[in-house]
Amino acid sequence: MRVIFLTSLIFLVLSGCTQSTSDSTSSDQSSTFSESETSVNSECGIVIENTFLKPIPFDSAEPVRVEAISSDLVIVTRTEGEQAGNEQLVKLQGITSSGLEPFKIQKGKNLIEQMAGFNGFFLSAGAGCETTLPGGGAGVVGQIFSSDMKSVNEALIANGAALPESGSCGGDQLAGCYAGIDVEVEISPLTISHFLWKPESEKDGNLVVLVDAYGVNAKISGATSSSKGDNGGPSNGYGATIRYPFSGCSYGSATLEFYDSQGRLVQTASGEPSIKIANGCSRSELRF
């Protein structure tokens, strides 16, 4: 497995990049996919040169290998034509990984490489559609499709591994459609039968949540703030001791969603997908 730092990776990519051209498109690619296939593999289409396109013009797609850096950032390596071997950093159009838990980002990276790692297709959002990354590197904006021309963007959204993002280069036109895609939720075999909400723990005065299930974590969406917990392991007869950076009162009324180590949703023993707290200032113990 190739292990490199992102900053070094970006430098190498940029130093070897050449602007893509239509000459790099495979000469027989247009005969590989019929026009009818272009209308069934993308729900939201694509925006090229600020023009919404559906069906998608796959005759201009470039065959590439794809390496995922995040669930919204990839490196494409062209495999045919004059640009064969050239690499380019690509920000995926209309989606973001910002705010996602690490396990969801990793899930997205795995999905990208499963769908398009060795045999994918790249469509640029158009000339001038470039992006600057937080680390200072630069890339272009576009979309990746699998070898059977399924949208990787839409698969990432459906699997909860990316979120819609408005912005330049067609993001505004795509985000609304992406927001309407149903997100598939994997259910864990673990369940929660016993739950305790302590607004102020003895350790630090902040919220601690205890549940009987082992190896789980929880995200709180509160009326005034949201946080991901930190599972410190079993204690006091519970399987998980999940601590938060604020007191229970800081969250007001709150909803907790629990996940196992593989990112699957952990339901209560009664089948509820989340636990709701009406008043975060009050101690609450529940059995299901």
List the defining traits of the structure above.
288 residues; alpha+beta; 6-stranded mixed beta sheet; 5-stranded mixed beta barrel; 4 helices; 32% strand
Task: Tell me what you see in this structure.
The chain is an alpha+beta fold. Helices cover 15% and strands 32% of the residues. The chain has four helices and 21 strands. It has helices at residues 6-16, 102-116, 152-158, 171-179, and strands at 46-48, 51-53, 62-68, 73-78, 87-92, 95-96, 120-124, 130-132, 138-145, 163-164, 187-192, 194-198, 208-211, 217-222, 226-228, 230-231, 240-243, 254-259, 265-268, 275-277, 284-287. The strands form five sheets. Strands 11, 14, 15, 18, 19 and 20 form a six-stranded mixed sheet that branches. A five-stranded mixed β-barrel has the order 3-4-5-9-7. A hairpin with a 3-residue loop joins strand 14 (217-222) and strand 15. The longest helix has 15 residues, at 102-116. The radius of gyration is 22 Å and the shape is elongated. The model is unreliable at 1-40 (pLDDT under 50).
Give a summary of the structure in a few sentences.
This protein is α+β, with helices and mostly antiparallel strands and 288 residues long.
